[in-house]
Prior knowledge:
The complex is a heterodimer of chains A (439) and B (320).
Chain A: H1 2-25, E1 38-44, H2 50-66, E2 70-76, H3 82-91, E3 98-102, H4 123-127, E4 148-155, E5 157-160, H5 161-166, H6 176-188, E6 192-194, H7 210-218, H8 223-231, H9 239-253, H10 267-273, E7 276-279, H11 287-294, E8 298-301, E9 312-323, H12 330-340, H13 343-351, H14 366-376, E10 380-382, H15 391-405, H16 411-424
Parallel strand pairs in A: 1-2, 1-3, 6-7, 9-10
Antiparallel strand pairs in A: 3-9, 4-9, 5-7, 5-8
Chain B: H1 5-9, H2 34-68, H3 84-89, H4 93-106, H5 109-124, H6 130-138, H7 145-156, H8 161-168, H9 184-211, H10 214-222, H11 227-238, H12 240-256, H13 259-265, H14 277-287, H15 291-319
Amino acid sequence: MLRRRSRLIGGLSVIAAAGLALAACGNSSSSGSSGSKITLTFWENYGTQLSLLNTAKNLIHAYEKLHPNVTIKMVSQPANNYFALLQASAISHTGPDLAVMWTGLYLPPYADILANLRPYISQSTFNNIEELQWGAEDFNSSKAILAMPVDAQFYMGFYNKKDFAKAGIKQVPQDWNQLYAACTALKKVGVTPIVYGSASASYTGEFNPWYDFSYLMIGALQPSQWEDLYNGKIAWTSPIVQDQLARWHQLFVKGCVNPDALTDANNLGQFISGKAAMTTDDGSWDVGQFTQEMKGNVGAMPPPFSVAPQHGVVYFPGDAISVMKESQNIPAAANFLAFMDSPAGAAQIAAAGLIPDIKNYQSSNALNSQMLGFVKSGYTVYPMLDNVTQPQIVNVGYQVLPALMVGQTSVASAVNAMYVKHNELPVAQRSSYAAYFGG
Amino acid sequence: MSSSGRAGRMPAGLSMRPASPFRLAGGSGRNWGRSQRGAARAGWVLSLPALAGVAALLVLPIGQAFYYSMTTWNGITSTWVGPDAYLQLFEDPTFLRVLENNGLLLLAMPVVIAIPLGIAFLLHEQIAGWKFFRSAVFLPTAISWVVIGVIAVRFYALHGILNSMLSAVGLGFIKTNMLGSTHEALAALAITLIWSQLGTNTIIFITGLAALDPSLAEAARVDGAGPLTVYRRVIIPQMIRFIQFAFIITVLTAFTAIFSLIFVMTGGGPDYGSTTLEFYVYQQAFSESAFGTGALLGVLLFVIVAGISVVQVRVLRARI
């Protein structure tokens, strides 16, 4: 009996091993344009971000229609340890062909496991992409291209037009004083001025502070000065940073923010329903949902965290897709990415409510058009602060900044934690952005 | 039964010391012949697969972890730092904060032991409805940490169950948002841990109580000792081994098994307020790809847990 059972187990093991080997090998054909059957595996970490999920589905569906011999299997991976999983899979040679990648300083740690797309995609396609350098080796678009942007993203605040009208707010706030005044007016009519919560959550489960922090630094520094935050010429403990954070914390002190900002799980719902008038820890990825549920009742506003009228905007291709160096189907996978950044791919991205990252793109969505209008009307364009800050410091920010907002830690303590982390980094990781590659 | 034990009846010439596992045929050193040597060799050979398995699955990874703990390993490439890595860690204020959190979590241990011990006594006395209560108390043990975490988030939320209950009993002025507070988040975690360990520890103590010799308690009662005195002076001393076991199991759980609870409830925040060493390992290794630091923290966690267990065993052994 025992022997039969062990034989059975042995047999099953052989079958399982063979199956795994087959799955790992996939199809070995090389190009999507040839007639041979190709299966590409695509890892994503989109979680519940519907617009990104829909974008991926749209793109895959359209591409498979154009290339009937290609099948793209989308595999959802947990967002919290996505990059560790990706790295582990690359080391164990079980990785996907295509994988979601973040641009900027999120990219360099994984540069060694990503394929250079330059030999597989035409220069004309690259020329058509906005801010391609953030997915390139050494952030130089004439070098190896490691990640192809999916969409151009705005970190953006949104406001409920009916709530503003109810409170008698005629002009969208543009600086701190106007924001505090709007807050007072909104509280008088029983509306929560600004709502925060876990909808934008980082791995800490609290709201993602880097959306707001980007606008706090826009309100205080020029784009060229942001690299000084990176290299330490402007310390995280500098008065410029502390002053802005202190004003930000005042929003909570003045009752402009929901008291359960760290734990509210329904902050988006409160904004959509009109119980809260503004959301600032947000961005263009929620435009699809806002457009669908709020129709014309929602407007975009760069969070006015500035003493002078806010005149900067975060516009950056933060989300990208890469081809893994391990892939047996690099040409076919690259062909899919070329399609993604072509006019046909852009139509699929736009259909999901996002803004394709191609030059001079005109959106038919009112909110997207409004955001693109900020750029066209001369607002200074900034990258996402977390994409140009060392990931180690970004992680510290996730912990200390939400706590600072609700008064659980002091400004000095929060910035000191970031300063200490900055000083712990190897010198190569705090000199220039490009030096972060290999640093 | 005689209290003299087996040793008293043991034939002369046989040692109390256990024989080597490889002396299959037994026998003394004088009779150590060729066949015995062959048997010993066979013993080693037959043990080799198991030893190789232990070496490959346990010794090697532990050795690797120790090696990588002294490097800056990012998962692909590593640079040797040496023992200085340990010294540098102790200069990191975040690490010290995390250690402090582990220390604070230890303060919950007496409660994790005392409440189940009290419940076990009541159940052992077969109070009315004891069968129902036994099942009810054990229920949390059957629930996964993730589910417990989700329930706890709803319980402690500003508009959650705890505040509703306080309002219902006229204490609505006490509005708590424990998970949103740096100092209270760890307390919320500890309370949840106490609740979730209730079943396991109660069952351990019920088992212990059932295994006790009732004659000692009876003798004490006959001598006029009240119920409390009997428990304090007679039963608890006999329960020390079970308390020791429950303590070690609970410390191990608190230090190495509540990752998912922290992940779901607080994410280690706010401001590292509920980050324990175990969670910090994850943050360093998987959020920052600092696998070298992760390995270093893992080694320290092992040393701390082993240290606490040894101290605890020694302290209780001295009291027996």
